């Protein structure tokens, strides 16, 4: 059965990016029957504003044409997530956190009643049955350390919208020992279980 992989690149660098290179390798490991949809955040995403928030909290039927237009990109990004079986996100750590464009993507896809809902026992993610693979690269921040505000944030956000199966490939602290770090990351990529 054909599967769909959503690839999200968050690095501002189009060439020489470790996260993009490792994401290339992961995507290449999936079988030829996998359909790959690419969302390159280096192209930029708008930040949510008052018009977006107002449109988002207006029920779908009475939304004005302007409100539907304000949500159009968000609807597209959500549809990409809904259609994907696997989501691969290239995540460089910038100043201890995720790039601004990736935070903008999170804001555009985390929508009550669409990707999660509130219940009597708390929020419930609606995008269940999917897998995410995070490819984390950093110059000096150790992945998973108290200074890493990127991986924990993304794991939480993905779980919040229902994606609880999250694998992480790390190429962290590249400035200290790039050769050993890249070798370790390549081994992590090869060890990933992927759909044939």
TrEMBL record:
Oxidoreductase recorded as keyword: yes
Ligand binding (FMN): 11, 17-19
EC number: 1.6.5.-, 1.7.1.17
Keyword flag Cell membrane: no
The reaction(s) this protein catalyses: N,N-dimethyl-1,4-phenylenediamine + anthranilate + 2 NAD(+) = 2-(4-dimethylaminophenyl)diazenylbenzoate + 2 NADH + 2 H(+); 2 a quinone + NADH + H(+) = 2 a 1,4-benzosemiquinone + NAD(+)
Alphabetic keyword roster: Flavoprotein, FMN, NAD, Oxidoreductase
InterPro entries for this protein: Flavodoxin_fold (IPR003680), Flavoprotein-like_sf (IPR029039), FMN-dep_NADH:Q_OxRdtase_AzoR1 (IPR050104), NADH:quinone_OxRdtase_FMN_depd (IPR023048)
One example GO MF annotation: electron transfer activity
Signal peptide: none
Cofactor: FMN
SUPFAM superfamilies assigned: Flavoproteins (SSF52218)
Domain Flavodoxin-like fold, first and last residues per copy: 4-191
Enzyme class, broadest EC rank: oxidoreductase
A Pfam family: Flavodoxin_2
Cofactor note: Binds 1 FMN per subunit.
Family, similarity comment: Belongs to the azoreductase type 1 family.
Subunit structure: Homodimer.
Protein function: Also exhibits azoreductase activity. Catalyzes the reductive cleavage of the azo bond in aromatic azo compounds to the corresponding amines. Quinone reductase that provides resistance to thiol-specific stress caused by electrophilic quinones.
Protein name (record): FMN dependent NADH:quinone oxidoreductase
Source organism of this protein record: Roseicyclus persicicus
Lineage per the UniProt record: Bacteria, Pseudomonadati, Pseudomonadota, Alphaproteobacteria, Rhodobacterales
């Amino acid at each position: 059965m054909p599967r769909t992989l959503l690839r999200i690149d968050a690095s501002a660098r189009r060439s020489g990016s470790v996260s993009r290179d490792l994401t290339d390798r992961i995507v290449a490991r999936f079988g030829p029957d996998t359909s790959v949809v690419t969302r390159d955040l280096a192209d930029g995403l708008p930040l949510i504003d008052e018009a977006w928030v107002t449109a988002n909290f207006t029920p779908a039927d009475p939304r004005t044409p302007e409100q539907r237009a304000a949500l159009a990109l968000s609807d597209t990004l959500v549809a990409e997530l809904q259609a994907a079986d696997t989501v691969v996100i290239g995540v460089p750590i910038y100043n201890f956190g995720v790039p601004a464009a990736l935070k903008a993507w999170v804001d555009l896809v985390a929508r009550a009643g669409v990707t999660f809902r509130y219940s009597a026992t708390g929020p419930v993610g609606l995008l269940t049955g999917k897998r995410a693979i995070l490819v984390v690269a950093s110059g000096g921040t150790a992945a998973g350390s108290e200074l890493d505000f990127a991986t924990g944030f993304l794991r939480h956000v993905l779980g919040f919208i229902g994606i609880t199966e999250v694998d992480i490939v790390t190429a962290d602290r590249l400035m200290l020992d790039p050769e050993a770090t890249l070798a370790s990351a390549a081994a992590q990529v090869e060890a990933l279980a992927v759909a044939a």
